[in-house]
Amino acid sequence: MTAVLWKHVRVFRGSQELGEAERAEAAQHLKHVRSFSTLAVSMVKTPEKSEEIRKQLEVSFDCVKSLRFRDRQSPDSAPDLHWQDVVFTLRRSLGKDDFVRMNLPAEFWNKYDVPESIKEPLRKYIDQFESFYRDGVGLYLYGGVGVGKTSAAIAVAQVVRSLAHPVLFVTVSDLREMTRNRIDFDEGLTFLDRCKRVDFLVLDNVREEDAKEMYIGALALEDLIRHRAAAKRPTVVTSRMCFNELDNALPGFGTIAHASCVFLEVTGRNRRSTKQAELKTRLNSVVKKGM
Q1: How far is it, in rounded angstroms, from Cα 58 to Cα 88?
Q2: Is the pLDDT of residue 120 over 50?
Q3: Which of 69, 84, 178, 213 could potentially form a cystine with 217 if both were Cys, beta carbons 3.0 to 4.6 Å apart?
């Protein structure tokens, strides 16, 4: 496990003397920044305690994220709040608890395959993820049946989770059933609420038929992606619908997706057909051995 700390901290600008409350807030901020460095070094030196240290780091990072500082640029201007750009990036291996919390299908826990047609743009998206994340930019992956749209989305989701961001995967049909049957994600938190609030959402298999559904239909899907776009929370959408088909079937959803997602077409062979051929070959092999 490796920990990488990247920080660029602007505490105060200008020559105005800080008030007592501001000095205390700055001291708290610097305390947590120092703890990052100390804990990151400890993680490298004591790998057996890495999980415990990771949790301490996440707590410390949450504290830093909650801080806001007054920026007095001139004696005549009112104090403004400005964001402190302190980014802690923790790459780690994922385990069962992560996959369950992400609501990830078990078939993707240990293996996923990124389609060749979008490997390069996905790599660029991941390389620049913190920038895309701050701007709330997601992905819209579209293409034919079985070309690997879901697999590609999950590949990105797992990388994002390894960077310590909360991630949720859900198909539109499953979200509909959970809403209809009032199944909660956590006590007092519905799956739909979790979809709105989670840092990074994969919304799988958006279909033309969704426009006519009573539960999680056109209006609900539009409200969901609008809520996330307004809060600058990235969403990855997978669908068979291309630009024009999406705009015709779900115009409100499509308008917001165009403004908040990079559209990528996934092409290639139908992997389900290939897998079926492999299973038949395997069965035939077993039958011959049995004879």
Answers
A1: 9
A2: yes
A3: 213
Domains annotated on the chain, with CATH:
2-91 (no CATH), 96-272 (3.40.50.300)
Q: Give the pair of three-digit tokens for residue 177.
A: 């059933």
Rounded to whole angstroms, the Cα distance separating 168 from 170 reads 7
Distance (Å, whole) CA 107 – CA 78: 55
Whole-angstrom distance, CA of residue 58 vs CA of residue 49: 15
Of 288, 215, 211, 281, whose CA–CA distance to 248 is shortest?
Answer: 211
Residues 6+ apart with CB under 8 A from 282: none
Q: Is the pTM higher than 0.70? A: no
Contacts of 54 by beta carbon, 8 Å cutoff, 6+ apart: 1, 3, 43, 90, 92
User: CA end-to-end span of the chain, whole Å?
Assistant: 50
Q: Which of 37, 79, 86, 39 is nearest to 63 (CA)?
A: 86
Segment 197-242, tens digit of pLDDT: 999 999 999 999 998 887 888 999 999 999 999 999 999 999 999 9
